[in-house]
């Protein structure tokens, strides 16, 4: 200070003048960053309300649960994780390897088709398969009538069981591993294989000794997503009668009416998720696996003939057939059976309901994601990075947990407002508000990641150029960045829209009384043994998922063609 | 009067141990073109970004005309500084036309004046015919001119350019250097530009400040830096040089080559110094007015415009010390040279740097 005053003779008056004239820049600074603070608080809110469970008193229901049910929940959840994890790793890695290394008729088609099951939510796949293998199903009837095959009550085994749930979840989720593995295998340089071949190793040996160890981080990344989805699942396990943490939360809340137990179960599930995330991060470690960047030539696929080609086709076609083609045909057949009458009367209001909710949630989520991504870009600092990472954490938290975390404090708030006498209803829990709020928590990351990645692709010097030419940040965002990242925003919006549309557990808990969405109605019909009536809603969800996939594919292709700035 | 003056600007990035910018003091006259030269990571870009207002200095001041831009408790927003910036990647808005790009900083002008200024700028950079094109439809050189026009349109007092030629093909660089120099001089623009290429400096800069590890090592005209570098690092920065240890006593320099004459007289005690002798300073043959050195050819290389030869001085005591010499005529080498002569004014005396 002393020195500054001596050399530049800035008096307090001058400094004040400067502050008035130019200090506004600092205020704007605060406005953006404080928004990310707010967003982080929004996410912290349900988390904190769950974590207080460890402090809360136990009640009778909790005593009952710990004594009679908890071991089942833990056991089933762990078996599901283990079984689905193993099976998805197997299917995903094997099919990705085959399409990446071999050439056979239909490979290009199957390479894309292998991702299709991702468009079908697990619970839809679950009840469709259950319906297919039902005693009265067309398949069973056909076998019985044509060849007089009668295997008793079950066709092969009782699908509605733990192994059945593992089978369904694996079919629905293997694409996560497949995508991660294929991206990795595709990036592999031919040089690696040639070097190994020169040393006298076969392709299979290279797979076990080089490819697999090198691909481990990618595979585990895909596996982590699978396990996260398994923990999030409510529809499949509930339909298949497998008691896990999520069904436990539901029965604690709806059957026992015990808030404490629901919160406590949520807290334990949350710890499991954190452990999983930590494990994934730790295995990544410090090692670098992609040392072959730069001069890598893509791998040339080995052509297969005859039986081997048939084998490759079978390996890659089976997951698609079982995870997509068969179920979709079944749903189409059922939809045709239900007829137009039901469609028009029950279905259209449902559709508008669902779409309006999803559109509203999408608008909010994408806006929040855009603002926080722009803030993180404009004011890069450890603080903003932490805030952003914290506020996008919701995607890892199971929907049921988010729902309970939002519901408990909202109920309390509603009661407080009612005791104050100002209102006479359930302003928060009885409306879309709680639902939208919870979607924001859960799906912010989906939008954020897409928007952030397209923002990263535009040089920050654009912002700085506009800034130096006298434009405020809000205008820079609107005039310069928004037009440039439009595809990214569209992708984010599509993904969030679909996610909201097919979301089940969170919506089931938080929906206002008598409010149905496509996902809920489909699930309820199926649960009432009216699988055929569940078909149209299911098809809409699947169809939109496919549309989104096509659009996203187009967007990512145009991105590749753009000249990239570095 | 200096147009721009910085004093003691310093900046250490969060999480870094070393200062990115240390006591950066620079004066720029009106109409002058000053280069900040250095290897990557030397702090030149940080200096530019601090002056432009994209990074905040930890301490120090920046005056522009009579205004304080950076000082204790003072931080002027980038737009209010009166500085135009040309970015390394040009940062042209890809979805806006050339005209829209150039007019983007003229938003405060009334429509008529804006049009007028835009046309002036388009004429200046000779892009009137391209006004409605989009940036990706232009060549690298044209893009650079759009970026220049956009930065200059609001009539900034100083123009800052970040590595203006790093995105240009080597073959076109010479032409574009001339073009930029002519344009800046024609408009009387005061400019500071950052580069790692001494050829940019030689072609464009009136003055240059060479930076290393966040500090300015030496400031001067390009010729001064070439001929009178303060330390060996600077001598090597502008081409090759023979760095020879010597003991300086009165008007004599005792070196492994023998005793050489000093241009200036050391009035104090004898002290150790380093000599910088450019490879072009040696001439073949002997001369009565210069120091003659007997040598033996060790190696020669054809370098296109000249021959690069290494000679071993025959009378050198101590260890071998090959002399790097540039010769323009091949013939002389084939004849074999036994003698080189060195003009005394080509011997430059430097202090021994503390840390080497």
Give a brief description:
By secondary structure, chain A is an all-alpha fold. Chain A is 77% helix and 1% strand. Chain A has a single domain, classed as MetI-like fold, CATH 1.10.3720.10.
Rg of Cα set of chain B: 25 Å
Spatial strand order of the main sheet of chain B = 7-8-9-3-10-11
Compute the separation of the termini of chain A in Å: 41 Å
The helicity of chain B comes to 10-25%
Largest sheet of chain A: 2 strands, parallel
Rg over CA atoms of chain A: 27 Å
Task: Considering residues with a beta carbon less than 8 A from a beta carbon on another chain, report the largest interface and each chain's count.
Answer: A-B, 33 and 38 residues
Named CATH architecture of the largest domain in chain B: 3-Layer(aba) Sandwich
Instruction: Estimate nothing, just give the exact number of structural domains of chain A.
Output: 1
Q: What is the CATH superfamily of chain A?
A: MetI-like
**Measured distance between first and last alpha carbons of chain B:** 38 Å
**CATH top level of chain A?**
Mainly Alpha
Beta strand count of chain B: 19
Please state how the strands of the largest beta sheet of chain A are arranged side by side.
1-2
Give the SSE string of chain A. HHHHEHHHHHHHHHEHHHHHHHHHH
Structural description of this entry:
The complex is a heterodimer of chains A (566) and B (356). With 566 residues, chain A is mostly helical. Chain A has a single domain, classed as MetI-like (MetI-like fold), CATH 1.10.3720. Chain A contains 23 helices and two strands. In chain A, strands 1-2 form a two-stranded parallel sheet. In chain A, helix 3 packs across helix 14 (306-378). The longest helix of chain A is centred in the middle third of the chain and has 73 residues, at 306-378. The radius of gyration of chain A is 27 Å and the shape is globular. Mean pLDDT of chain A is 83; it is low at 1-9, 24-28, 291-295 and 560-566. Chain B is α+β, with helices and mostly antiparallel strands and 356 residues long. In chain B, the strands form four sheets. A six-stranded mixed sheet of chain B has the order 7-8-9-3-10-11, with helices on both faces. The longest helix of chain B has 17 residues, at 170-186. In chain B, helix 5 (170-186) links the parallel strand 8 and strand 9 (191-195). Chain B folds into two domains: 2-237, Rossmann fold; 242-350, no CATH class. The interface between A and B is large, with 33 and 38 residues.
